[in-house]
Amino acid sequence: MYTVFSTFDVNESKADEVIEIYKNRSRLVDKADGFVDFMLLQNDKRKGELTVQLIFETKEDYLRWVRSKDFQRIHDLEKKYPDKELAAVIPKVSQYKVVVK
Question: Which residues does the UniProt record annotate as the domain ABM (predicted)?
């Protein structure tokens, strides 16, 4: 298994708005080969810190996803989001191979 965390900070007043966006996400990644799971995590102490966790069967599956047209389409839409502050958010991405489960 392979997991990817994309962590970003937003103003705490906008955290609920971002959560709603993810509740209504396109779910295109769910159809990607090797996709296992998606989660949006919120830091318990810092409400504006959010983390997207994606789990894939393999690193190769994940890399195919990030090179796909669907991935590009989703991220192009994010850049066009009307709230310029949210559209400018750049996450810190960390990638991990699961070694024990």
Answer: 2-90
- Three-state SS string over the chain comes to CEEEEEEEECCHHHHHHHHHHHHCCCCCHHHCCCEEEEEEEECCCCCCEEEEEEEECCHHHHHHHHCCHHHHHHHHHHHCCCCHHHHCCCCEEEEEECCCC
Provide the residue type at 74 as one letter.
Answer: I
Record the pTM: 0.90
- For residue range 50-100, what is the model confidence (pLDDT) as tens digits? 999 999 999 999 999 999 999 998 887 777 778 888 878 889 999 999 999
Q: How many CB atoms lie within 10 A of CB 62?
A: 21
Give the Cα separation of 4 and 55 in Å (integer): 6
Residue type, 76: D
For the chain, which domains are there? 2-97 (3.30.70.100)
